[in-house]
Specification:
The structure holds two protein chains of two kinds.
Chain A: H1 3-65, H2 69-84, H3 88-109, H4 113-117, H5 119-154, H6 158-165, H7 178-181
Helix pairs in contact in A: 1-2, 1-5, 1-6, 2-3
Chain B: H1 3-40, H2 67-73, H3 75-110, E1 113-115, H4 122-135, E2 142-146, E3 153-156, E4 164-168, H5 169-174, H6 177-192, H7 195-228, H8 235-279, H9 282-294, H10 328-336, H11 343-354, H12 362-366, H13 384-399, E5 403-406, E6 412-415, E7 423-425, E8 432-434, H14 438-441, H15 445-451, E9 461-464, E10 471-474, E11 480-483, E12 491-493, E13 500-504
Helix pairs in contact in B: 1-3, 1-7, 1-8, 2-8, 3-7, 4-6, 6-8, 6-9, 7-8, 9-10, 10-11
The chains are: A mainly alpha, B alpha+beta.
């Protein structure tokens, strides 16, 4: 075999190796991006779970503290807004308001010993605090996934491939209010 | 973020390869020994002792050429080595297949764990689900409860899809929600890091090595004598080979165990780091570990499960290299001294506490992620009386020139006035604090004199004992003091004013 043939073979081999590497990196990026999408879907699932819990909670509280109209109605109204919210920004705002309304409701409950002793309510409270935790953890996982993904597409050499195939940086799920930042919080 | 797993995976592969080398070598050595013994035994199956010395045939592997040359020339040994290595691999594969196929259910039923649904223990179920979300696992693991008052937990699962988390009922009873969350997060961390997979394989290999070595050594006792010294050329070489094989058969299981344990300990640290990251609240896991550590020793049945449990139930005696788990106290101190909940913080705390390097892969640390700690949940405020008593105590400490340092983990370190240390280590979390100069903290002399006017010129005091029993008397400052029958020192100090009081035994002049 001539030396030209050997050189050609080497070049061919290099091209194959580079191609394989590109495929590997591309697939890795797709996997990471899907992970981020998945994490985002998980937040939605948990928010929906919270929406589903609220009517039950309001009914139970009504039986003991029916005259606390304002607080109860605020919760129901916040839920309605959250369910019908369109777009990310609006949704984040509505969910934040719902969290605050729920917080006020649970604070109110402190002054009703009978309600606090109610089995049904205790179970609901555990569900609710668990849901708050889940939302928090889902957000945390989303942010972790976004960070991994963003770091990957910013570092060299994957950034070359990210640029070629249009992988863009994704936004973090930022929380505005200081009260929200404290979540996930466990209540007893 | 999950390169920690990658680096761990690499390390685990090295471990598996090393174990495989040990396994195959052992198999080959045993095979060669058996092959050499069978191949070179005299046809008449002679068992005379002392053996007849046969002349070494000229040109055929004189001993000077070395054992291996002699063995390489021996077809029996050569074939034996090949078959031995193959057999060792086959046994290992068979056991591994069994462990992979039925491992989870065997382990769970060995621990008497029963599967629960959400209605059985809603809080545990919720916590597991929360941690599943935090870890981003594709599916929630099955939840099991073990009816046992002891505090422990473990996770199994060859694949994340078949994973299960088991906790004891004692754990459910004694831990609060945050602590339970920490423990579950640790177990989910094991699942997320695919620990069960490697540890199953490693355990199977370790078991196979132990099994082969044991079989060989036992077989040797039964068959050994006559064949050991054969009359043909390979005789001396075979004897040396036998010796090597015996030594190897004794050492191999120990080496395998050491490898296994070091890997297991490392994975515990990593699961702790993962738990901190998932919950953003390492203090909860630390406090759960404290509770678990304080428990009484649990039952025997845990012996087989020891590497899986959250803390080693057999901690007595098993320490250092021979332990499946790192010392719980060390883990607690690492968790308590974490600055934030990220892997980098765990690594820093790990280095500071243990003095060793690197627990988590370098690439993870290079990513330099920080994860802010979660605020501890608001605890119910302590009763007023206790609060007031504490305030009074603090005031007295200051009057007595004690130096009080509040550690970030919640411990208050009190240093007596005579202490000349320049820095002090928190016994709980291991943080070090610089000790401020006592003078700077001291209350001005005038104020001190106003509070404790009796401090100037305490008169020398003596107390003559009446007999050998319990006796009470008063110090010059009015503070009642007591000496017991066992008191034998020549003097004591008043606990209030610090004056020295000589105590004279009853018989003395």
């Amino acid at each position: 075999m001539t030396s030209l043939g050997i050189a050609l073979l080497i070049v061919l081999g290099l091209v194959v190796v580079i191609l394989l590497w590109v495929v590997g990196v591309y697939n890795g990026l797709v996997r990471l991006r899907n992970q981020v999408k998945n994490a985002w879907a998980q937040i939605d699932v948990q928010l929906k779970r919270r929406h589903d819990l609220i009517p039950n909670l309001v009914e139970t509280v009504k039986g003991y503290a029916g005259h606390e109209r304002g607080t109860l109605e605020a919760v129901v109204a916040a839920r309605t807004r959250a369910v019908s919210a369109q777009g990310l920004e609006q949704q984040v705002k509505a969910e934040g308001e719902l969290s605050q309304a729920l917080g006020r409701l649970l604070m109110l409950v402190e002054s009703y010993p009978d309600l606090k002793a109610n089995q049904n309510f205790l179970a609901l409270q555990e569900e609710l605090s668990s849901t708050e935790n889940r939302i928090g953890f889902a957000r945390q996982h989303y942010n972790d996934s976004v960070m991994t993904y963003n770091t990957r597409i910013q570092t060299f050499p994957p950034n070359v491939i990210a640029g070629m195939f249009g992988f863009h940086e994704l936004p973090f799920f930022e929380v505005d209010s200081a009260a929200e930042r404290r979540a996930p919080q466990v209540k007893f | 973020m999950w390169e920690a797993i990658e680096s761990n995976r690499r390390r685990s592969r090295v471990l598996i390869v090393l174990m495989g080398v040990v396994l195959v070598t052992l198999g080959a050595l045993i095979g060669a020994t058996v092959g050499a013994a069978v191949g070179t035994a005299t046809p008449e199956h002679e068992y005379t002792y002392p053996p007849r010395r046969a002349p070494v045939p000229r040109g055929v592997s004189p001993p000077q050429q070395g054992v291996f040359a002699a063995l390489a020339a021996d077809p029996g040994a050569r074939a034996g080595a090949g078959w031995g290595a193959l057999a060792a691999g086959a046994v290992c594969l068979l056991l591994w297949g069994l462990a992979v196929g039925r491992g989870e259910s065997v382990l769970l039923s060995a621990a008497n764990a029963r599967r629960i649904e959400k209605s059985d223990a809603p809080q545990l179920w919720n916590v597991v689900e929360e941690m599943t979300i935090a870890a981003g696992l594709p599916r929630m693991p099955a939840v099991y409860i073990i009816d046992d008052a002891a505090l422990n937990a473990f996770a199994v699962g060859y694949r994340p899809e078949r994973a299960a988390v088991a906790v004891t009922s004692g754990l459910l009873k004694r831990l609060d929600r945050d602590e339970l969350q920490g423990v579950v997060a640790h177990e989910i961390g094991h699942i997320r890091n695919a620990d069960a997979r490697f540890m199953t394989l490693a355990a199977v290999m370790m078991g196979t090595i132990a099994l082969l070595a044991e079989l060989f050594l036992r077989g040797l006792r039964h068959v050994g004598r006559g064949r050991r010294s054969s009359s043909r050329g390979g005789g001396q070489a075979a004897a040396i080979l036998l010796l090597i094989t015996i030594v190897f058969a004794i050492l191999a299981p120990l080496a395998a165990q050491l490898l296994y344990f070091s890997c297991s300990r490392r994975r515990e640290y990593l699961a702790d780091a993962s738990a901190a990251r998932f919950t953003r609240y390492p203090a909860a896991l630390a406090s759960a570990l404290e509770k678990i550590e304080r428990q009484a020793q649990p039952a025997e049945m845990y012996k087989a499960l020891a590497p899986l449990l959250i803390v080693n139930p057999l901690s007595g005696g098993l320490t250092g290299l021979w332990s499946t788990h790192p010392p719980t106290r060390e883990r607690i101190r690492i968790l308590r001294s974490m600055g934030d909940a990220g892997f980098a913080a765990y690594e820093r705390a790990y280095r500071q506490t243990t003095g060793r390097r690197a627990c988590i892969g370098a690439r993870t640390l290079a990513a330099a992620d920080t994860a802010p700690l979660r605020e501890p949940p608001p605890r119910p405020v302590a009763e007023d009386a206790a609060q007031r008593a504490r305030q009074v105590g603090e005031l007295l400490d200051r009057v007595g020139n004690f130096v009080v340092i509040g550690c970030a983990c919640g411990v208050r370190l009190k240093l007596p006035p005579g202490d000349r240390q320049t820095q002090v280590t928190c016994p709980r979390c291991g943080r070090t604090h610089a000790v401020p100069a006592a003078e700077a903290l001291a209350i001005p002399a005038a104020a001190a004199a106003a509070v404790a006017p009796r401090q100037k010129a305490p008169p020398p005091m003596r107390y003559r004992r009446r007999g050998g029993g319990w006796e009470s008397f008063k110090c010059g400052c009015g503070n009642p003091l007591q000496v017991g029958p066992a008191f034998s020192a020549p003097a004591l100090r008043c606990s209030k004013c610090g004056a020295r009081i000589e105590v004279v035994p009853p018989g003395a002049a």
